[in-house]
Recover the amino acids of this structure.
């Protein structure tokens, strides 16, 4: 179920106050048998203030950022690591995934490297295997991340069947030339540019660790 916008009352408050003030001025004017010059001036000022409040409220509706609607992802929470990994690699993957889950809007993540799923953490999808589709293949070939800001509007969402079925946004970040870090969020348009830079930095660090650790162990 989507969460409502927590700022909606704040954005509407100037409109409500301005409208209420205008109505009260009108009632006061209608019930006053004789209008004095000072009251007329006060009414003009009241109308101007009410108009300013209403205009401010309308501007806030457009300018103030609205929190994207978030959902509860469908699935069980889990932490699954491939068993045949070196301990250093397991530690690095655990550290990186914890940072991403606690410092970004990520709610589900998968590390896919050398054709294998090394890690699944967060809210898990029903499917455990990753079959690279066109988007994942393009990320690996181009070595450029892809951010699907609203997964529901992309026909290619079907290739992410290993994520929770109601995942709202996805980032596919290359891990060197042999892997991809796949992140799922519970709200569309929820990753910021700072988040993307943070994710890229962690992926670069993982690339070094995995290249050294996996090569040394022959995994």
């Amino acid at each position: 179920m989507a969460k409502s916008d927590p700022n909606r009352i704040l954005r509407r408050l100037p409109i409500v106050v301005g409208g209420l003030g205008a109505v009260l001025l009108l009632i006061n004017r209608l019930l006053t048998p004789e209008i004095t010059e000072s009251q007329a001036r006060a009414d003009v000022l009241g109308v101007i203030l009410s108009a300013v409040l209403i205009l401010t409220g309308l501007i806030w509706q457009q300018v103030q950022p609205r929190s994207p609607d978030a959902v509860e992802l469908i699935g069980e929470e889990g932490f699954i690591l491939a068993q045949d990994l070196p301990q250093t690699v397991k530690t690095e993957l655990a550290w990186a995934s914890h940072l991403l889950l606690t410092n970004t809007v990520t709610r589900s993540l998968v590390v896919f490297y050398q054709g294998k799923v090394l890690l699944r953490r967060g809210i898990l999808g029903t499917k455990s295997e990753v079959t690279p589709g066109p988007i994942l293949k393009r990320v690996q070939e181009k070595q450029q991340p892809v951010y699907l800001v609203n997964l529901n509007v992309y026909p290619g969402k079907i290739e992410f069947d290993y994520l929770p079925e109601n995942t709202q946004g996805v980032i596919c970040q290359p891990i060197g030339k042999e892997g991809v870090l796949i992140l799922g969020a519970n709200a569309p348009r929820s990753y910021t540019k700072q988040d993307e830079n943070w994710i890229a930095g962690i992926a670069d660090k993982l690339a070094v660790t995995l290249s050294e650790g996996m090569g040394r162990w022959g995994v």
